[in-house]
Amino acid sequence: MSALEDKRFLIVTGKGGVGKTTVAAATAVSLAAKGKRVLVAMCNAKERLSAMLGSDLIGEDVSEVAKNIWAVNMNPERALEEYGLMTLKSRVLYNLLFDNKYARSFFRAVPGMSEWAMLGKAWWHTTEVRADGSPRFDVVILDAPATGHGLDMLRVPKVIVDVTPPGLLRRDAERAIQLFRDPKFSAVVLVTLPEEMPTSETIELAAALTGELAMPIGQIVVNGVLPPLFSRDERATLEGFAMPEIRNAGDGALAAGRDRAIRERVQAESLARLSRELPVKPAFLPLLFDNASTPHAIHELAKRV
């Protein structure tokens, strides 16, 4: 976590089903415990964060969900309106420029405008200040879409710069690109599982982020890591057994041991590959055999992120 504590904007992404929201929640709890004011911004997601934090359902308005933690589930159309108002600081000017059929047609024609509305809104919250001039939020955590959609979202500012004329939209996109690439301001948190396909996707995603987008990777989180029961030799021995026809408890135990040995081997190979091929040493979260989507589980994971 030390690599993330001084960042203002964290982008959490990874293959679908690897536990992105779990990691976003645990990271928020960890930072909040250190006194940081944290906003978690979801992208029009199926809302599960409230169960993890023990709060009311999280909607389209920013709301406090725990001590030092706020959250919002962004809707693209609402986000575009809010982003426009935040940028222009005038309802009259917003209505003049945005709320007409020509402007709406233009925004629908801009590739990735819905994604930019949510990305831009999340980023804008890092600029908000309170009455005393201090930041409203010390850290904004964007719970981004899964790998492919998440990467497309992060490409949008460059697309806007390439296709839109000079103006407010292009200015903000240029500024966002600069800040997203600044390792003092932003970091991407990649979440994966110790399995073959998520490992391959994570390595490919990391290459695209650091190469094509020049964005800094702040942390790799490997979720659902099993405690090993067998040595390498024991795994090889168990895998060498033919799968028995299960007729008694002994056959069942052997089959279960063989399955566990295979899973441990795949996990060991995946962890070795992640450590070898990624620019940041991975952090590990244990597989929780009880429900991981509870406040108690999230607080336990927060100690390890």
UniProtKB/TrEMBL annotation:
ArsA/GET3 Anion-transporting ATPase-like domain: residues covered: 8-160
Pfam family name, one: ArsA_ATPase
EC class (word): translocase
Transmembrane segments: none
Enzymatic reactions: arsenite(in) + ATP + H2O = arsenite(out) + ADP + phosphate + H(+)
E.C. number: 7.3.2.7
Entries under InterPro entries matching the protein: ArsA/GET3_ATPase-like (IPR025723), ATPase_ArsA/GET3 (IPR016300), P-loop_NTPase (IPR027417)
Entry-linked Gene3D superfamilies: P-loop containing nucleotide triphosphate hydrolases
UniProt xrefs under PANTHER family: ARSENICAL PUMP-DRIVING ATPASE ARSENITE-TRANSLOCATING ATPASE (PTHR10803), ATPASE GET3 (PTHR10803:SF3)
Family of this protein: Belongs to the arsA ATPase family.
Protein name: arsenite-transporting ATPase
